[in-house]
Amino acid sequence: MVKLNNKTLSDLPANIAVPTYDRSALTAGIVHIGLGNFHRAHQAWYLHRLMQNGQALDWAIVGAGVRPNDETRRLELLEQDYLNTLIELDPSGISAEVTGAMIDFVPVTADNAPLIARMAQADIRIVAMTVTEGGYYIDPVTKAFDANHPDIQHDAANPTTPKTPFGAMAAALKIRRDTGVGPFTGLCCDNLQGNGAILRQTVVSLARLSDPDLADWIDANCSFPNSMVDCIVPATGPTEIALAHELGIEDLAPVTHENFRQWIIEDDFCAGRPDWDKAGAVFTDDVHAYEMMKIRILNGGHQIIVGAAEVLGIETISGCMSNSAIAAFFNKVALNEIVPHVHPVPGRTPESYVELISSRFANPRIVDTTRRVAFDGSSRHPGFVIPSIRDGLAAGTPIEGLALTEAAWARMCEGTREDGSTIQPNDPFWTDLQVAAKAAKDDPAKWIAQDQFYGDLANEPRFAEAFDKWLRLIWAEGMTAALKTYLAA
Predict the structure, then answer these.
(1) Could you give the CA distance from residue 41 to residue 243 in angstroms, rounded to a whole number?
(2) Residues 91 and 240 in one domain
(3) pLDDT of residue 326
(4) End of a domain among 284, 299, 319?
(5) pTM
(6) Count of domains forming the chain
(7) DSSP string of 314-361, one letter each residue
């Protein structure tokens, strides 16, 4: 087994693809905040593909993070010269490659001083991020900026020592403005509808709390393109590390992923960009249609299946699709209740996308846990599922399965499975969700009264009555009985 680093690349097994470019000649162009598995399997891979063709050699990635555990990741990657093993898990077989587009990782400190200093340097022209859907300090229902969050209040009062990545971006942009370096592009790579607009809102609104002139300068000079990203990338644990070992590589942080990637980007970069389209990304003025299809069907589809699966004790997404009732539930809800509100995109109809997602979810080599996908439902349901409910109510199309999805989430948040085992806390607001879920066992209206998620939906009789019916049935007869009742209708 070969320990991964620059010196050992030539010692790796012959079937492992490695960088063919001179990594010592790479120069930085991008800071990426939130350097988790998804980024390394997706955005960094696109850049690596360009570098393999001798392009974008001045766009290398500098990793960054703002959480204490990001320092652990930094040290792991530093030990292997920031190289990454990507293991593709195709149903027909496994393949692997080592990517090298990342060349540095900023030390993680509480005041974010190293991150601010690095983003302020002239070679950095894009600051990208993957910090999860719930990390943008917005109201889940209205999508308005949450100026009252303690983190935001801290950054407004301490703009030179911020806690958040957005405060760090604003601080770096102030230095760039004052020194004449100029703006950079903020590129959001999280699953949010209009994610570039949301990133702009968060950075500009935060800056405005302490420096209105800076906020105006950022808003006028920086660009924040919308984008849509897609690739199923499980978390790394002992199984994934062991898989790398089986391939002959000692990698402290290997990444497994499916054999599918998609990246749709609005071409709005104020300081230049790599030609990612030459590696398969798509630049378009209509990101919205692509992101609507993906967020509603794939991300929404994940939430459709995981509530029921957690209650039934099904541990993986492929396991969900092996359960005939859950698989049929996903397909019926997606085709009948989501597809009517999704427009086709070039080369893909919503119906064919449902078929694609069903097969991707069912990939048995992808060990994507139900628990991982169910995490942070308090952000994911308002972002991925509830908009389809609103569309269905407005258009008069069916919403019964979506109401059942919400009832399954409520049942999951009660905190026990049908076999009596405990569901461990899995949401930033788990305590509040559990209180509401326990109250809803006898009075379902208590769950949808959480207007921070549902807004005024509790006052919509068609949804409220369906939700009441499904949650009562789940508690009375069980999750499988509720799914089968829906499927039989």
Answers:
(1) 16
(2) yes
(3) 98
(4) 284
(5) 0.91
(6) 2
(7) --BHHHHHHSHHHHHHHHHHIIIIIGGG---BTTB-HHHHHHHHHHHH
pLDDT band (50, 70, 90) for residue 437: very high
Asked if 167 and 155 touch (Cβ cutoff 8 Å), the reply is yes
Q: At residue 225, what is the residue type? A: P
Within 8 A by CB and 6+ apart from 12, the residues are 2, 4, 18, 98, 248, 249
Distance (Å, rounded) from C-alpha 167 to C-alpha 155?
A: 6
3-state secondary structure of 475: helix
The pLDDT tens digits of the residues spanning 159-191 come to 999 999 999 999 999 999 999 999 999 999 999
CATH of the domain at 278: 3.40.50.720
For residue 124, the enclosing domain spans 2-284
Region 297-315: mean pLDDT is: 98
Instruction: Determine the average pLDDT of the residues in 253-265.
Output: 96
Q: Are 170 and 214 in contact (CB under 8 A)?
A: yes
Identify the CATH number of the domain in which residue 335 sits: 1.10.1040.10
- Using a 10 angstrom Cβ sphere, with 0-12 exposed, 13-18 middle and 19 or more buried, the burial of residue 6 is middle
Quote the percentage of the chain above a pLDDT of 70.
Answer: 100
What counts of helices (H) and strands (E) characterise the chain? 23, 13
| Whether 446 and 424 share a structural domain | yes
pLDDT band at 253 (very low <50, low <70, confident <90, very high): very high
The answer to whether residues 269 and 306 belong to one domain is no
Interval 263-292 mean pLDDT = 97
> What is the rounded radius of gyration, in angstroms, for the C-alpha atoms of the chain?
23
b/e code 140-170 from CB counts within 10 Å (16+ = b): beebebeeeeebbeebbeebebbbbbbbbbb
pLDDT, tens only, 73-93: 999 999 999 999 999 999 889
99 and 73 co-located in one domain: yes
Which of 261, 284, 307 is a domain's end point?
284
Under the banding of pLDDT at 50, 70 and 90, the label for residue 397 is very high
Which residue type does 267 have? D
* pLDDT for the residue numbered 134: 86
| Strand-by-strand arrangement of the 28-33 sheet | 102-105, 60-64, 28-33, 126-129, 185-188
Q: Are 37 and 85 in contact (CB under 8 A)?
A: no
